[in-house]
Write a structure and sequence with these properties.
13 helices, 15 strands
């Protein structure tokens, strides 16, 4: 089984071998260097792209970068410029910035050349990349310490400051378990990042591990139906086990957020100079804070739901999880579901399922709520209400969301629905 790479974010509490003012200054300086290096690298790649295209058009042959006499490759030329422009920054961070800029440019180059997208750029809050070989994690007196390279050796020696900074981190139990496994060697530390969010700094630790081997069967399929009353209902094709994830907390939170946002918008008309006199950005800051809290809640909730769904699949030895293809969610569900990031939920389910080798399939949601999971009969009248399902043919009765999840868990459900619809249409024609 292939290895999985994941990332865990740890807040920096304080530096150990420096003070906050000094380390904070150099963090901002190096972040600036990474930002400028990334954007300059993008521009240099674009300039060379245009120059080489013009050369080939004029002379009828391709131009190698080494022919320019500035270096063996474009990446080495960009790296040399970064070192010359920002001699204080760690060379490994600048090198990674050049590499990431190259990856991003090459990925978007076909669309750039077509004129479909503009040349990419990086924002000022870009993370600082740190190399795994120059990053160390230890545990002392119950505290987790992370050591990373921030400055160049020549600059640090000249100014009497550390090359490598050691920081104390704050984390919860799940994060501590990951650090313990990295320290023990169970997990492998990968290239990571230092991220700034507001006034706080974080170390985003990337780690690699081989997923736990489980006895799973592709014949056992878990079906996931999303909704409003129940955020998700999960069923299995091979039994009657089921999982209900109630949607009450989502609705309650949504109502609180919407109520608070409307209050803030009304208050904006008569707010004091503390908000109004400092410009539009200050006036809207409380609303942006509310939006950020809502986004964090949705993200955390989706993590929780995804873990519960994958654990249910593992419990039932399911080698496959089938979910609705929600690309057409605006046509199927309510306005509330349009605002809830179900794509993010599906992405998290896919990632967590991949850790155990569980395959995730997306199917069409059409008629899954109208089809009887027992006899296969499809009729609009089968679904009596939001929660009640009763088949008009075999009189099978159950919860509507569970019936839909049961259908979604059925292998080849799309073909079965197509065949049933074709059979009904054939009978209608003959009857007519």
């Amino acid at each position: 089984m292939e290895s999985i790479v994941k990332v865990m974010k740890y807040e920096i509490v304080c530096p150990v071998n420096s003070d906050w003012d000094t380390m904070g200054k150099y963090l901002r300086d190096v972040q600036y260097a990474v930002w400028k290096t990334s954007n300059i690298s993008i521009q240099m790649m674009w300039d060379y792209q245009n120059f080489s295209f013009g050369y080939k058009t004029r002379f009828g042959k391709s131009l190698k970068f080494s022919d320019l006499g500035t270096g063996k490759s474009q990446s080495s030329d960009m790296y040399k410029k970064a070192i010359d422009d920002f001699p204080y920054a760690s060379s490994s961070s600048l090198n990674m910035a050049v590499q990431k800029a190259g990856i991003r440019f090459n990925k978007m180059k076909p669309d750039i050349l077509k004129g479909a997208v503009s040349i990419p750029s990086f924002k000022k809050d870009i993370p600082i990349p740190i190399r795994a070989p120059r990053t160390y994690i230890t545990k002392e007196a119950g505290d987790y310490l992370i050591k990373f390279a921030l400055l160049s050796q020549s600059f640090a020696k000249e100014n009497g400051v550390p090359v490598n900074y050691i920081v104390k981190t704050r984390t919860k139990s799940a994060g501590k378990a990951i650090l313990d496994r990295i320290i023990s060697g169970e997990y492998t530390l990968c290239d990571s990042e230092i991220l700034r969010k507001g006034r706080k700094w974080y170390v985003c630790v990337a780690y690699k591990f081989t997923p736990e081997q489980r006895r799973l069967s592709k014949e056992n399929v878990a079906g996931v139906d999303v909704g409003i009353a129940n955020a998700a209902v999960v069923a299995v094709n091979s039994g009657w086990d089921r999982l209900y994830i109630e949607g009450g907390e989502i609705n309650a939170f949504r109502k609180r957020v919407e109520h608070r946002r409307k209050q803030l918008l009304r208050q904006g008309k008569y707010c004091g100079n503390g908000r109004r006199g400092r410009g539009r950005k200050t006036k809207l800051r409380p609303i942006e804070t509310i939006s950020e809290k809502a986004a964090n809640f949705r993200k955390t909730t989706n993590h929780k739901y995804a873990r519960a769904i994958v654990n249910f699949a593992l419990k039932n030895s399911c080698g496959v999880i089938q979910m609705e293809d929600l690309s057409s969610i605006s046509e199927k569900k309510s306005a509330f579901l349009k605002t809830w990031p179900y794509h993010d939920l599906q992405t998290k389910i896919k990632r967590k399922a991949a850790e155990y080798g569980i395959e995730v399939r997306l199917i069409s949601p059409k008629y899954t709520s109208q089809r009887c999971s027992k006899c296969g009969h499809i009729a609009e009248g089968n679904r009596k209400s939001q929660a009640e399902f009763k088949c008009t043919l075999c009189e099978f009765e159950t919860h509507a969301d569970y019936n839909a999840a049961k259908n979604i868990s059925t292998p080849g459900i799309e073909t079965l629905i197509e065949n049933e619809l074709a059979r009904v249409e054939m009978e209608r024609k003959f009857a007519g």
